[in-house]
Amino acid sequence: MGKMSTTRFWQGNEACAEAAIVAGCQFFAGYPITPASEIFEHLARKLPQAGRITIQMEDEIASLGTVIGASWTGAKAMTATSGPGFSLMQELIGYAFMTETPCVVADVQRAGPSTGQATKCGQGDVMQVRWGTHGDYVSIALSPNSVQEMFDLTIRAFNLAETYRTPVVLLADEIIAHMREQVVIPPSNQIEIVNRKKPKPTDKTFFGSENIAPMPSVGEGYNVPVTGSTHNEYGHRFTADRTVHEKLVKNLFRKIRNNAEKIVDYETYNIDDCDVGVVSFGCTSRAIYETVELAKERDLTVGSVRLKTIWPFPEEAVRNIAQNVKVIVVPELNMREVFYEVERVVHGAVPVVPVNKIGGGEMITPEELLEEIVRSVKKID
Amino acid sequence: MQKRSEVRIAGLGGQGVVLAGKILGRAAVHDGKSVVQTQSYGAEARGSAAKSEVIIADERIGFPMVRKCDVLVVMSQNALDKYLKDLKEHGILLVDESIVREVPKIKAKVFMIPATKMAETKLKSKICANVIMLGALIKATGLVSQQAVEKAITKGVPNKAQKVNIHGFRIGLELVKP
C-alpha cells in the first residue's frame, strides 16, 4: 500500500486476505476448511502483525458468532469458509441480518452437498446464499472471476456491509480462490474505504430504519439491547406484535432493495447485435471470451452478461439482453441455480437453456459451451 | 515465443509440482507476461495425483485451464499415462527418467532428465527434483528468462531453502544440451 500502484502475483485467497487488511478488517475468526483455508492462514500471519486479531474457533458457528460480537465492539470483522461450514453458519447469518450487524463471510465454493469433493470446484451455493437462513430476508453476494476481483470485491464486500449494516457474502469458488494471477493494487488514496455510520450523543434509535440507522458499539454508553427477536427501533423486543414485526422486516428489505441499483454490478461483453446471450458468473465466466471468438467461426454472435453481484440479481441487465437475442444460455457448475433466476427474469421472452457440469473440479470449456450454444440455436431454428 | 504457451507439470503430491508451477508463473510475471497458474490435487497431503498448470501469454488470459499443452512435464508414470494425450503433436515433453520408465514413441520432442536421481546424489534432497525439472524446462523451451526464475525462487521459497533450489535449477539447465 503506497502512493504508487503495485503489481503482485497472488493466489485468489491471498488476494482476499490482503484486501481484508486494506479494507480495515480488525478481526477474523475461522475454522480451517479446504478450499478457503489460505484466507485464514494468511490473516493468522498478517493481522496480528498489524496489531489486529485472528482467532481459531471450535467450529464455524462459533466463528461467525465471534465475528458478530466483534462487529458490535466497532471492529470490521470477517470469516471465511466453504460449503459445509457455510451450512453451519446459516442461523447466524439470519441473526446478523436481523440485528443489522455488518460482517463479511467468504464462501469459497467446492463440490457438495455435504463433504462432497473437498478440493474440487463447484458453484452449488448460489441459492443457499439467497435462501439459506430461515424467515424473510435479502442477501448481498458478490461473485469474483479473477484474482484481481478477489481483491476488489473483498474490499467492496466490507464497504457494502458497513454501508447497509448487513452481512455480505463473497461467493467465490475453488478455481478462482486457488489460481494465481497478477493483481494491480491501486495507490491507497484511490481505494474507497467505507466506515459505518456512528450515532450522535443524542441519538436514541438504532434499528429498523430504511435509511440505515447509526450503529453504536458496546461500551459507548448507549445501553442498546441487541436481539435476533423482533424489536423496535430502540432494540426492545416485541415477540407478538404484528405491526412491529412487519415494520422491522419490511424496512430491512427496503434498506437493501431501495439501493439495489447502486449495489448491483455486472459486466457485459459483445452484447450489441448478438444472436445468443450467455449469463454466467465466477470461474465459469472465464470461458466466455474464447467462446465469443470460437462462435464467430460458426457464424454466431455471442454476447455475455457476467454477474459480479449475484444477489441482488442484475435483473435489468438480463432483461435487456433477452430483448436482443434468440436464446439465453446459462452455464454453471451445479444442477441449475442461476438458471432459474434467469428464467424468472426473462419470463418467457426467449428460451433459456441450462448448461451444467458437476464434480471432479472440471470447468465447462469454451469448446463445450460453444457446442451447447450451437445445439440451442439449432433447436430454435 | 508463441503468443500463448500452456504448460502442465504433473506428478504426485509431495514432489513439489505446485511449487514448480508457482515459480514458473512468478518468473513469467517478472518477464512482463500475463500469467495464470492453477493447480489440482487430492484430499491427501502426499501421494495422490497432483498437477500444476501455467498459461503464459502476451494478452489477458480468459479460460484458465490447460486443454492442449505445449509443454508437459511428468514426474510419475501415472501422470505420463494420463496426460500424454493432451500434449500437442509437436510439443515438448520432459520426463523425470528416475521415476518414469516407459515413454511411447511420439512426434513431440522428448527430454529424459534424471531429476530425482540428481537431486538425491548432488543435492542430498529428493524433494528438489522439481526445480531440476524446471531448469530443464527453461533450457528446453526458453519460456522465461533464467534471471526471472532465480528471482522467483528467491521470492517464492523460504530463505534456508533458496541456495539448494537455485543450485538445483542450475543443474537442470545443464542437463539439456542445446
Indicate the topology:
The complex is a heterodimer of chains A (381) and B (178).
Chain A: E1 6-11, H1 12-23, E2 25-30, H2 37-49, E3 53-56, H3 60-72, E4 76-81, H4 83-98, E5 103-111, E6 117-121, H5 126-131, E7 140-142, H6 147-164, E8 167-173, H7 174-178, E9 180-185, H8 242-257, H9 260-263, E10 266-269, E11 276-281, H10 288-296, E12 302-307, E13 309-311, H11 315-324, E14 327-332, H12 338-346, E15 352-356, H13 366-380
Helix pairs in contact in A: 1-2, 1-6, 3-4, 10-13
Chain B: E1 4-12, H1 17-30, E2 34-41, E3 49-57, E4 69-74, H2 77-83, E5 87-96, E6 109-113, H3 115-122, H4 129-141, H5 146-156, H6 159-174
Parallel strand pairs in B: 1-4, 4-5, 5-6
Antiparallel strand pairs in B: 1-3, 2-3
What's the quick description here?
Chain A has 381 residues and is an alpha/beta fold. Chain A contains 13 helices and 15 strands.
Structure description:
The complex is a heterodimer of chains A (381) and B (178). Chain A is of the alpha/beta class and 381 residues long. Chain A has 2 domains: 6-190, Thiamin diphosphate (ThDP)-binding fold, Pyr/PP domains (Rossmann fold); 267-380, Rossmann fold. Chain A contains 13 helices and 15 strands. In chain A, the strands form 3 sheets. In chain A, strands 2, 3, 4, 5, 6, 7, 8 and 13 form an 8-stranded mixed beta sheet that branches. Chain A has a 5-stranded mixed beta sheet with strand order 10-12-11-14-15, with helices on both faces. In chain A, α10 (288-296) links the parallel β11 (276-281) and β12. The N and C termini of chain A lie far apart (55 Å). The relative contact order of chain A is 0.12. The mean pLDDT of chain A is 97. Chain B has a single domain, classed as Pyruvate-ferredoxin Oxidoreductase, domain 3, CATH 3.40.920. In chain B, 39% of the residues lie in helices and 26% in strands. Chain B contains 6 helices and 6 strands. Chain B is an alpha/beta fold and 178 residues long. The interface between A and B is medium-sized, with 22 and 21 residues.
